Amino acid sequence: MILIGALALAVLIIGVSVVANSAYVTDVDTTSEVSPQIDEAQEFEYEANKGVRSLILRLNHRHRNLTDDKFGTIVGRNVTVYSQLLAESYTSSHGHYASITYNNGSSAYGSRVVQAKDFYIKDEGNNTGSWDIGDDSEYRELGWFSMNVELEQTRQEQLSITVSNASGNQVAFEINRTDTSNGTKLRVVSDVSHAGETTALCDPSRNRVLLDFVDGETFTGDCAFNGTRAVGGPVRIHVDGGENVVGKYEVVYNDSVGSSEYSDCDSSPTPDATEPCAAPVVWEANVTTEFAGSQLNYTNTFNVSVYEETP
Question: How many CB atoms lie within 10 A of CB 190?
Fold first, then answer.
């Protein structure tokens, strides 16, 4: 009896050992399969964030005469197409399911003031003298401020733009055409109240100079000056001497379209392209990403900042 009991106990111990070892091996195998999929999910979310931001930024500056509802529909449709393309890439390379959904109702809108055709730099009332872009009593986060200057018709007299914040810091731009021994250039003086002054002579491309006032450079990258990032937001913008420069410009604030001082670009009759008006932009996009693999199902909802706010 003692011998039979010992044999039974030995068989039981061996059986338990086999089961434990099998569970351990299975757990290790599962962990080894899940770990790469976690990395892939994180990579997908990173690519989704970057891709959605780039896509919506382009859409924000492509359309002018749309209501915010129609614009939201266009953004949603384009994000869906982008999601399908990205999902096909992940399915073919990894065999996983992935998708991106744009949530328009949870996204934050801003206002884009745009003068879309060459003319003097002016406000909505055709004023080219002294005026503010928007309400002079409000400070707002600035996401975009560009000006496309037509150099031949621009004067040697100066256009002055002052961007200031509530703390009293400001950057003042002076812009004019100047003739040098190396040809006609656009002169940009940028004076930061707490950091000093810089002067840049910007070369035209096909008689045009495209200025980025936020980063303080031309879009060709060959001309640099102090930008509005040196000031920090929220800010307000004052303009003097708009009759001295011919071109077009765009400013994006984080205000809603309804709070803009400018009439809507989709109003009837449609404003002429030389007249500044307000169009909707997505300031912060709310998106949901889904990623599913053989060992992992992952869903996350987050906000994508389309414009990097001034620090």
Answer: 24
Distance CA 230, CA 171 (A): 8
The number of residues making up the chain comes to 311
pTM score over 0.85: no
Total domains present in the chain: 1
pLDDT in tens, the chain (311 residues): 444 444 343 433 344 444 434 444 444 444 445 566 677 778 888 999 999 999 999 999 998 999 989 999 999 999 999 999 988 887 776 667 889 999 999 999 999 999 999 999 998 777 788 888 877 678 889 999 999 999 999 999 999 999 999 899 999 999 999 999 989 999 999 999 988 899 999 999 999 999 999 999 998 878 999 999 999 889 999 999 999 999 999 999 987 545 567 888 998 888 899 999 999 999 999 999 998 876 778 899 999 999 975 44
* Structural domain that includes position 294: 1-311
CA distance 178 to 184: 6
CA distance 267 to 246: 25
Residue spans of alpha helices (H) in the chain: 2-60, 68-94
Tell the burial category of 47 from Cβ atoms under 10 Å away from its Cβ (0-12, 13-18, 19+). Answer: middle
Joined together, the tokens standing for residue 295 give: 């060992």
Omega within 30 of 0 (cis) for the link into 271: no
Q: Write a three-state SS string for 220-264.
A: CCCCECCCHHHCCCCEEEEEECHHHCEEEEEEEECCCHHHCCCCE
Alpha-carbon span 111 to 259, nearest angstrom: 8
State the Cα–Cα distance between residues 83 and 111, nearest whole angstrom: 26
